[in-house]
Specification:
single chain; 245 residues; alpha/beta; Undecaprenyl pyrophosphate synthetase; six-stranded parallel β-sheet; 8 helices; 6 strands; endoplasmic reticulum; EC 2.5.1.87; magnesium
């Protein structure tokens, strides 16, 4: 009888201690996320931004940045940050490759999140639909955004094959096919690719676009900071591009 009461008391104390620990851990995690989210809502201060601009003047920045989400669930706040940071660092094109198609299915929610954060004088051009528009006489910052899925890569090849088979001059040369695929892609080939995950995996990214792309792996985009983003640009700038040599 004594041993049963002892084990019951021990279990009760252990359960209470674990419950308190779990509550404190959850509270601290929530506070940490709120602090990080608050910091993500804004670009660096003017003084810090000037230092960053001076640093950017000394490094090579990509024209087109592509982000491979891998198995990571899209977090719109972090992806919006990347778009805003690309504008701040003079990157003209950014694409997001989600092989699972989640981001494309929820594109309106993604655009809404960006609209809440984007300045009116900045212009974001979405290329996920054929009705992408430009503002006439626009003089502010501008960036092109595209969402890519695994199906987009497959459909590009299928559609190109069908179109070539219907034309009178059926030029199936490698150069002609490559040029046609580039036109369908709309964007210039990516200079830098950020791959999310512990291991390197392209997840069937359209191979004809990445012949000269420099890929860097990052563990996660979750709560990524502006300084971490700059670190990736510095890493890219230090890479030696041989361009097939």
């Amino acid at each position: 009888m004594w041993s049963i009461n002892f084990y019951r008391a021990f279990y009760l104390v252990f359960h209470c201690a674990y419950t308190i620990f779990e509550y404190i851990h959850t509270a601290l995690k929530y506070i940490n996320h709120k602090i990080v989210d608050f910091g993500h809502e804004f670009l660096p201060t003017t003084e810090k931004n000037n230092c960053i601009q001076n640093q950017l003047n000394k490094i090579r920045t990509p024209v087109h940045l592509t982000v491979l989400l891998g198995h990571e669930e899209p977090c719109y706040k972090d992806l919006v940050n990347l778009i805003l940071w690309c504008m701040a660092t003079r990157i003209s094109f950014i694409s997001f490759y989600d092989h699972k198609g989640i981001l494309k299915k929820n594109e309106q929610e993604f655009q809404y999140e960006l609209d809440q954060r984007n300045l009116k004088e900045d212009h974001v051009i979405w290329h996920s639909h054929s009705d992408s528009t430009y503002k006439n006489g626009f003089i502010g910052k501008k960036i092109h955004v595209k969402i890519i899925t695994e199906e987009d890569g497959r459909n590009s090849v299928v559609n190109l094959t069908k179109n070539l088979s219907l034309t009178k001059n059926r030029d199936f040369s490698l150069d002609n096919i490559s040029e046609s695929l580039r036109k369908q892609f709309e964007f210039p080939n990516p200079d830098l690719g950020l791959v999310c995950g512990e291991t390197f995996n392209l997840y069937n990214y359209p191979p004809w676009q990445i012949s000269v792309t420099e890929f860097l792996t990052i563990k996660s985009l979750r709560n990524i900071t502006f300084s971490s983003f700059i670190e990736q640009l510095v890493r890219y700038s230090k890479c030696e591009q041989r361009l097939g040599k």
